[in-house]
Amino acid sequence: MSPPNPKVDFYFAKAKTWQQERTQLRAIALGTGLDEQLKWGCPCYVHGSANITLIHAFKDYCALLFFKGALFKDPENILVQQTENVQSARQIRFTSAAQIARMAPIINAYIAEAIAIEASGAKVEMTLSHDLTYPQELIDRFDADPDLKAAFDALTPGRQRAWNLQFTGAKLPATRVARIDKASPRITAGKGPDDP
Predict the structure, then answer these.
(1) Which of 21, 34, 93, 189 is the most exposed place for a label (fewest CB within 10 A)?
(2) Residue 5 to residues 27, 38, 132, Cα–Cα distance (Å)
């Protein structure tokens, strides 16, 4: 059992929803011997330097996210891919404290599997940026502005993917064009959508 990290206590104290459920998940994660850290504003449980699982909450559920969940066997068929764009992580979602209490042995088994996967060195095969399908509006812009295309190609694969997700997330062509217009200076500067 690992001790709670005092730097993470505020996350549980400030919770307005799913407080009991989050506290239960914390106890389970600490009970596995993982170290507790604060990452992305959430309690993250690590083994050595590797992220294993993270607690986060949403309006309709709280969840335990496994960073390499795509590699799990998932015998209980409980892992959820949060969105179609998430390649590696998977969640177990909870809607009550009773559900977490009932599933505690299963949660422990999934955490043990996550640690074993990390120890094995296994990696999730990620879609490379050149495998992405770009919206026609971006392709047209690249044709009209080779410098923008060169700047985009020079971005890291993660930044390329993040921009593509932002552009393809728009339903209307005009919105996609507007997003590309707004993003162009940042792309030229070598930045991704989340960079300062």
Answers:
(1) 189
(2) 12, 9, 40
Whether the per-residue pLDDT at 86 is higher than 80: the answer is no
Count CA atoms within 13 Å of residue 68 on its CB side.
Answer: 22
Q: What is the DSSP letter of 16?
A: S
- Sign of the Cα pseudo-torsion (84, 90, 95, 99, in order): positive
The model's pTM is 0.69
| CA 125 to chain CA centroid, nearest Å | 15
Question: What residues contact residue 25 under an 8 Å CB cut-off, 6+ apart?
Answer: 55, 62, 64, 94, 100, 107
Name beta bridge partners: 44.
37, 54
Q: Where are the beta strands (DSSP E) in 23-83?
A: 35-39, 42-47, 50-57, 62-66
